[in-house]
Specification:
single chain; about 180 residues; mainly alpha; 2 domains; two-stranded antiparallel ribbon; 8 helices
Length: about 180
């Protein structure tokens, strides 16, 4: 067994590398730019939603499964639109808080990678076994629930596939760092 605290360097370094890679992928590469589209009549929709508290909303909304089968709700579903809306606090976009949270999340993924690898791989193990386990755990950490956004939330499969590709890159980078810095005997 390898102690979690002895893996602090691969945890932090993998988070830094993933943070840098994700910055390049989202700023330099442009394949995520079409993940969102502008609503027709954006100003009218914004006016209608103005004053609504930040949160997640569903339309049409039903208080229970029983209510979903009432004729009025069935008609609302037929008429549409059907969707989920996520509202954030108003104000100019500031990515500082989001970037800090993303970095902390990458550290958390690294901690779970270290925990699983530390309990399944002995010190001095060759690079490839560490790479395989670390990469698998990291991949699950970065994209494990991504498909639920499509299955339940309506996110297009194309966006989900792009997020899986991002997660694969992050996982490979994390696996490489752990394989490289795995404790020697």
């Amino acid at each position: 067994m390898v102690a979690l605290m002895s893996l602090w360097l691969p945890i932090l370094l993998s988070a830094v590398i993933v943070f840098a890679a994700s910055s390049v992928m989202h700023i330099v590469l442009t394949y995520h730019r079409k993940d969102f589209s502008q609503l027709p009549n954006e100003d009218r929709v914004a006016d209608a939603l103005r004053g609504t508290a930040p949160g997640m909303y569903m339309l049409p909304w039903s208080a229970s499964m029983k209510d979903m089968n009432t004729p009025a709700m069935v008609e609302k579903f037929k008429r549409g639109p059907i969707g989920m809306v996520m509202l954030r606090l108003p104000g100019p976009p500031g990515f500082g808080k989001n970037l800090v949270q993303w970095f902390v999340f990458s550290i958390v993924v690294g901690v779970f990678v270290a925990y699983v690898c530390g309990h399944t791989i002995p010190p001095g193990a060759p690079y490839l076994p560490v790479f395989r386990v670390a990469g698998t755990v990291a991949f699950l950490g970065y994209v494990g629930a991504e498909a639920t956004k499509t299955i339940w939330g309506g996110q297009p499969w194309g966006t989900t596939v792009k997020n899986y590709i991002d997660g694969l890159v992050y996982a490979l980078l994390t696996a490489g760092v752990f394989g490289w810095l795995w404790p020697k005997v």
